[in-house]
Design a protein that fits this description.
alpha+beta; three-stranded antiparallel beta sheet; two-stranded antiparallel sheet; globular; DNA-binding protein
């Protein structure tokens, strides 16, 4: 399954990524009301919000995020891989990261660059415009999810499109940038 998805990782390595992500999570059965005042708990309960602990039989919503984070990490390129894909020197890749023209994060092994921003011919068209609008506090997983999720405001032909697909089809990056600027805002 991992190979079919284009992930160059062994099942053992993938499970190591998952275990690392799980270790970073909050307690296994967090108390949703723990960080709320009495007044806030009462107000939320009055409007029908359930603040009780998740039961043992309920699916844990964090599992999907852990899997997505593991895939994002494993599919990301290193600086040398990105340099090879772009036909440039590794120092140019680091400059592009510093300038906000490539997205990436640093871990214990060095810079990791999410694969969604690359194409077979280089960098996603309009990427620099989009990245300039992404709020600095948005984590790589949120940006990756945004770039790959269908948006009602973007259409390719008769269908709604994900920002990545919109840009690949020649869509105006300013439209994606306006949407990206709203990442993290309340809905």
């Amino acid at each position: 399954m991992l190979a079919n998805a284009g992930l160059g990782v062994s099942p053992r390595e993938f499970l190591t990524f998952v275990e690392d992500a799980v270790r970073k999570l909050a307690p296994p059965r967090p108390d949703p009301a723990a960080h709320l005042s009495v007044d806030e708990r009462e107000a939320l309960t009055e409007v029908g919000l359930d603040l009780s602990h998740r039961s043992e039989t309920e699916s844990d919503h964090r599992a999907r995020a852990v899997a997505q984070q593991a895939v994002l990490h494993d599919s990301a390129l290193t600086v040398p891989q990105a340099a090879e894909a772009l036909g440039i020197d590794t120092s140019r890749v680091r400059h592009r990261i510093a300038e906000g023209r490539l997205a990436g994060w640093k871990d214990q092994r060095g810079w990791r660059l999410p694969a969604w921003q690359f194409t077979t011919h280089g960098v996603l068209p309009g990427l620099d415009v989009v990245l300039a609008s992404v709020p600095a506090d948005q984590p790589p997983l949120v940006v990756a999810a945004f770039m790959s999720s269908v948006q009602e405001d973007l259409q390719v032909g008769p269908a709604n499109a994900a920002p990545r697909d919109w840009l690949l089809a020649g869509g105006d990056p300013a439209r994606v940038a306006r949407l990206a600027a709203r990442l993290g805002e309340p809905v």
